[in-house]
Design brief:
About 20% of the residues lie in helices and about 35% in strands. It is α+β, with helices and mostly antiparallel strands. It has a 5-stranded mixed beta sheet. A 3-stranded antiparallel beta sheet has the order 2-1-8, with no helix packed on it. It has a 3-stranded antiparallel beta sheet with strand order 9-10-11, with no helix packed on it. The N and C termini lie far apart (about 80 Å).
């Protein structure tokens, strides 16, 4: 019985290492809105994730309490929203020096083979300040439920207004936020002030 040398073993394994493995399911980012509430957003809706210093935000008078102000980055000016307050929870973000922020596209780009987020001048961007960004994960379509059967009693009515589906393959159902619905509501709030 002849043993393979390390070089021979490496040569036989290299094609497996560099061969693309098909991955099924959609990518999501998990956000902790307040310590007891976690939601998700499709990764395709996200343009950027960053830490924003409170001193970089320009407060705007006469705006709803959920609007922290305007923020400028990479040539874009956009609203920064306290997601907890917007969804009807008590905010945990008052008097902080920095915010964990997810910049979302109001109209998500189409799926493509290129996973690199890009923006163009026609996109509307919204910054969502959250308690904590927990990371990304992949979920197969079979674990996503669009019906809200039994979910209404588990979440607030404000949050329910922006949820279209739930991820079921977690300890408890994980709501998926609809960014377009949120943008529509923000426009309505802006026009009312």
């Amino acid at each position: 019985m002849q043993m393979e040398t390390p070089a021979e073993r490496l040569r036989s394994l290299l094609p497996q290492v560099f061969a693309p493995q098909p991955k099924e399911g959609e990518l999501f980012v998990k956000l902790q809105v307040v310590p007891q509430v976690i939601v998700s957003i499709p990764l395709v809706s996200i343009a950027e994730v960053s830490l924003v210093m409170a001193s970089e935000i320009t407060p705007i008078p006469n705006m709803p309490d959920s609007v922290l102000g305007l923020f400028n980055t990479k040539g874009y000016v956009f609203w920064l929203i306290d997601l907890a307050y917007f969804l009807g929870f008590s905010s945990t973000l008052s008097r902080v020096k920095s915010y964990e922020m997810v910049m979302v596209r109001a109209i998500p780009k189409q799926h493509s083979d290129d996973a690199t987020p890009t923006t163009n001048s026609s996109e509307q961007l919204i910054g969502l300040a959250v308690h904590h960004i927990q990371g990304s994960f992949r979920m197969p379509a079979s674990d996503i439920q669009t019906s809200d059967a039994g979910m209404k009693s588990r979440i607030t009515s404000e949050l329910l207004a922006y949820v279209d589906a739930y991820i079921l393959n977690t300890q408890k159902p994980l709501p998926i936020l609809n960014i377009e619905k949120m943008k529509t509501r923000l426009i309505e709030l802006g026009q009312a002030t």
